[in-house]
Amino acid sequence: MAVTFERKGDTLIALLSGEIDHHTAAGFRDSIDREVEMIRPELLVLDFGEIGFMDSSGIGLIMGRYKNAASYGGAVKVANAPPVIARMMKLAGMEKLDVI
Prior knowledge:
Order of helices and strands: EEHEHEH
CATH superfamily: STAS domain
Structural class: alpha/beta
Number of domains: 1
């Protein structure tokens, strides 16, 4: 599990790698939340390009960041989700939130 960050203007990009499951989700969450708390970006992009596996904990990770961003007027987008993960997000209804 690893998260690295890039900042482009009012956008914070969180580059996620590894697997997201019930063992690793808290580490991703804590890393992202610390960075977001300092910066308060208009847009948080969660880049899933290097995620090899995700279970429902990943949906919770995205939803929690979405709620946090909404609390201060920000937004969240998911980028580069592998097809299997993108399908899981669609089945969870995340398209309705304009996250994917």
